[in-house]
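Curious: why these numbers?
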Amino acid sequence: MPVDFLRSGAFALPWARQALGRLLDRGVQVTMMYGDRDMDVSWAAGEQVSADIEHAASAEFAASGYEDLIVDTNRRGGMTRQRGRLSFSRVFEAANRVPAYQPEVAYQIFQRAISGLDIATGSKNVDEDYGTRGGCSAWHGRTGMPRAPQPECYIWDVATCTSAHRQALANGSAMVRDSIVVGW
């Protein structure tokens, strides 16, 4: 993995980490979420930034493990490490601007943070002693590559069409909506 990817975390400047530490020591909630498909601001660097924030519970945060970020009973939206008011979440299948890619996950993280609940499940009240338990790294939570989208045939560029699309266009059986073949 390129070194730049590992060092591209937001708030990586020392003054910003110090400011976040001061906020935490004053009781302010700091919730960090990074998409695992983001090549601009990597989640791996964000994870490191969260570990580098100096505050009263730094050692306890580092000792906290990762728990699955549960969105609903059927979906795991990512992984979260949390100690007291500091949380770091790796959100699966999201790039920069997590809410645009995973709006429900981002909404749940936001709601849980402002409600004083644990980020991973939203079922526990958080105080300074609360900490997640689990593995020490979010690397084991890989989701694999996303499925490739189905081919889409744009009638004004037949190079985008499969042979079946082209045959349906040629014999007149293609159903077209907004210049896209939608069936035959």
